[in-house]
Amino acid sequence: MNYSTQQDHVTLVITHSPLPGKTREYEAWLEEIMPMAASFTGHLGVNVIRPREGETAYTILVRFADLDRLYAWIHSPDRQALVAKVSGLLDQGDRFEIRPGAAFWFTPQTKKGPTPAKWKQYLLTLGVIFPSTNFVPWFWGTLLPAGKGTLWGHLLNDASVVALVVFFWMPLVTRLLKNWLIPKGQ
């Protein structure tokens, strides 16, 4: 299947939990793999969300221009070798999923309307995701301290962040900032 006609970027969402005592080695591995990914055609950037105190899971967001280029990176011998290298440092192996770009939050009411500039989409999404990924784990960690660092705790945090972002924050802020996102006359 050819995905090269896709208009929006795609994101590889990777979740890694280093084994106890292996965080420093894992961080060194990240410093090795990130520049390698950046050297691949279509690479648009990477964000590393490090675990909060008392947690272990790292979330790495790697963006590519389209699925073909992302698949080229995923299946490259370079990445395969580095994934094999890190496997002994990880609690649950190399877990990832592929998500389409964030543009679905910014789809105009009418299909004929313009879409916001990518940098505005980025700033708005970061402005919603960053506080959510900091507040939600704190909230659940305070309410349910037994969930900290557990799989069900991560699921609860992730499900809460996604629900807040998709059903509350993005509809609210895109409505409030619609004139900034797409200035009148565009």
Automatic annotation (TrEMBL):
The keyword Ribonucleoprotein does not apply. InterPro entries: ABM_dom, ABM_predict, Dimeric_a/b-barrel. One of its GO terms (molecular function) is monooxygenase activity. Pfam families: ABM. Keywords: Membrane, Monooxygenase, Oxidoreductase, Transmembrane, Transmembrane helix. The chain crosses the membrane at residues 122-140, 160-177. It comes from the Bacteria. Residues 10-98 form the ABM domain. This is Antibiotic biosynthesis monooxygenase.
